[in-house]
Write a structure and sequence with these properties.
Blueprint (H helix, E strand, L loop, with lengths): L1 H10 L13 H13 L2 H15 L45
Length: about 100
Amino acid sequence: MIDAIAHKFQTGTQWVRLPEKYGNWRGVYNRLRMWAADGTWERVFTGLVAQADAEEDLGWAVSVDSTIVRAHQHAAGAREKGPRPANRPTTPSAAPAAD
């Protein structure tokens, strides 16, 4: 199960494209969601950090690969400077329309 979840996040593939050797993708997805909701992942991470700290083998390195970091679809074309100017109110003309 953990290999299936790791494969999904390492490759960035869609859930439905998960290789058959990992079983039904819905089962993997549901297990990931359950473990996230019940705190399993938090406990695993906390335990691994505690173990590494006890062995004085704790070093942090953070790396972000921009090829997999995506902006939300609504972020494209966003204004860079301040809010949009307000539309000028339209007022009807007092004169009748010309034919």
